[in-house]
Amino acid sequence: MGFFLFTRSLRDATEPKKVLELIVNDNQTACFVVNEENQIVIFNDILSFLLNWSVNAIARKPVEDILRYLATQGHDVKVELPPFDHLSKSFLTFKNFGRKGALLLKGYPLGGLPSPAGSYFLIRQEDPPTEKSIRQYFTPIVDKLYSRTRQHLAMLALDDYDLREIDKASKEILESLGPLLQHVRVFLVNRISMDDSSHFARILYDGPPENVQESLEGILYGDTVFFQKLSLNACRPALVEHTDLPWKHEILFPFNWFHHVFGWVGIPITSLEVWKNPVRFSWQEILTELGHSLGLQRSRMGLLPQYQLVGEGVMDRPSLGKALDSMIGRTPPRPFVLLLFRLRDMSMREEFIQLLNKAKRGTDFLGEHPEGLLAVFPDEDPALREAIAERYRKIFEKLIVSDFRFQCVISSHGFPSREWTSTDLLVRMDEINGTEVRPAVEVATDEIVFDDWFKKFLLLKDFE
User: What's the pLDDT score for residue 1?
Assistant: First the structure.
């Protein structure tokens, strides 16, 4: 009993498929997934058997076609289809399949995606079951099946969405490149995010956007070393040096949603002067939108937490706890540094948010605090927490000279241990007194110059 995938797949689907085939392993239970566009994109061969339809006849059909066939048994008669909301609450029973048999259908949401997107189970019974047997026997069994298959089905359904968004972003970038540089590589993590995957899928976009050529590229042994270095520095852009390509350098920008990194886009450049060119801000904006779109989709599908914001990019307290727990609980744990800014003047909170949003890297994020703001710096060695706090202290020392309302107290803490929870860590942060930021001795200038420690490149040698 196998599953068929009619998604535009880039990732290796072998593992999720094998898991699904082990879980849904009897010849009376069909399973299928409907995507946001109301297309059946994943199903097992039992569905083909129960409906007596070919695999190609089922692929990408709207779920209404299945319901209509079950309700009419293929006869050309008008029938009122049941609402999809009813399917998520109880079974629908379709009788007279076989001599006395019945088919039972139940649907479940695919995360928070609107219906009819969802996971569906169709079960064949030789005798029509009673309402009591459905409630006491079939419902617990199918609920358990859904619980065990939910994440694997969602991951397989994710490919279609990811590749549509990556196609769109890559073509926007190609439009900004000269005719000789229209070549973009995308490195996409093979699972949900870097938190649970160190393996990459790779796709190449070559040529002008109107007739771009797309191709999958093989992964060489040398590339595994390349990817390991990339994944260990998940939040930093990389500068790749090439020796056998028309361009000498390639910039790899990560695309992410808060601390969740989904991959990198490689953009060729002829000169490092491009880094000073305004076009790089356009690239960063495109990739910021890409990461935001992929992150929200994963959140809607239940694959990543749902974060609630209380300001521009500022997580509320429960969401901050979820984010910290996800890094502490990762195997191996993901190190981070935490800074607490206690504001002397809470009316300056929005100005602090704007300033910190400009200074932080793409994967750093802010959280609310009763006395000010918390800043989280993923993938930083906890031993460097004092150095990071010192850099921000120098920024605010200069600002206070021109505007005393930027006075604050900065406290720091590094990743504690696996035994801690986010609650323990936040309580500990409240207990740390911190360092008062005082005006700098040197004369302030009109232009605030930020340290570029967060903009440094990871330097890599391409192994191809």
Answer: 62
Q: In the structure, what pLDDT confidence band is assigned to residue 286 with cuts at 50, 70 and 90?
A: very high
d(Cα 365, Cα 342) in Å, to the nearest integer?
17
**pTM of the model as a whole:** 0.85
Reported as a single tens digit per residue, the pLDDT across 403-436 is 999 999 999 998 877 888 999 999 999 999 899 9
How does residue 351 score in pLDDT terms, banded at 50, 70 and 90? very high
Q: What is the pLDDT at residue 280?
A: 84
pLDDT score for 73:
81
Residue 195 is classified by DSSP as G
What pLDDT is stored for residue 95 in this prediction?
86
Domain with CATH 3.30.450.20 in the chain: 3-157
| pLDDT, position 119 | 94
Q: Average pLDDT, stretch 296-323?
A: 93
Q: SS3 letters for the chain?
A: CCEEECCCCCCCCHHHHHHHHHHCCCCCEEEEEECCCCCEEEEEHHHHHHHCCCHHHHCCCCHHHHHHHHHHCCCCCCCCCCCHHHHCCCCEEEECCCCCCEEEEEEEECCCCCCCCEEEEEEEECCCCCHHHHHHHHHHHHHHHHHHHHHHHHHHHHHHHHHHHHHHHHHHHHHCCCHHHCEEEEEEECCCCHHHCCCEEEEEEECCHHHCEEEECCCCHHHHHHHHHHHHCCCCCEEEECCCCCCCEEEEEEEEECCEEEEEEEEEECCHHHHHCCHHHHHHHHHHHHHHHHHHHHHHCCCCCCCCEEECCEECHHHHHHHHHHHHCCCCCCCEEEEEEEECCHHHHHHHHHHHHHHCCCCCEEEEECCEEEEEEECCCHHHHHHHHHHHHHHHHHHHHHCHHHCEEEEEEECCCCCCCHHHHHHHHHHCCCEECCCCCCCCCCCCCCCCHHHCCEEEECCC
Residue span(s) of the chain under CATH 3.30.70.270 come to 309-453
Helix (H, G, I), strand (E, B) or coil at 32: strand
Give the position of tokens 């890559």.
170
CATH of span 176-301: 3.30.450
Average the pLDDT over 14-32 and give the result. Answer: 89
CA distance 233 to 242: 20
Query: Rounded to the nearest 5 degrees, what angle is found at the Cα of 456, between the Cα atoms of 355 and 304?
Result: 65
Which fold does the domain 309-453 belong to in CATH?
Alpha-Beta Plaits (3.30.70)
What CATH code would you report for 3-157? 3.30.450.20
